[in-house]
Amino acid sequence: METHPTISRRDKAAPPPESHEMLQKRNEELEKELRHSLEREEKMKKELQSIQERLLVAEEAEERLCWQMGELEAEGVDHAREYRAHIMSLTEKNTVAKKLIQQ
Known about the structure:
It is a single chain. The protein is built from two helices and no strands. With 103 residues, it is mostly helical.
């Protein structure tokens, strides 16, 4: 039977000191990246909220403008009807005046 040098569990679990330092440094780098990522996420949340608020203001302004356009359109139709009635009245008066002149 061949004998193998035995490796204790302790030897397997404990990384060499230089590896431990590398892992600790990598862990610090990852924590730093996480902090930056969380900061970016918070900034993006605030930016999104700001955009949503601006969108709401724009939608309300659009509604007001649509309402005003509807009012102006209705007013324009009323003016056109009044103008047409006035033209018809003047045309009728003109016709009557021509008949009187021809007599």
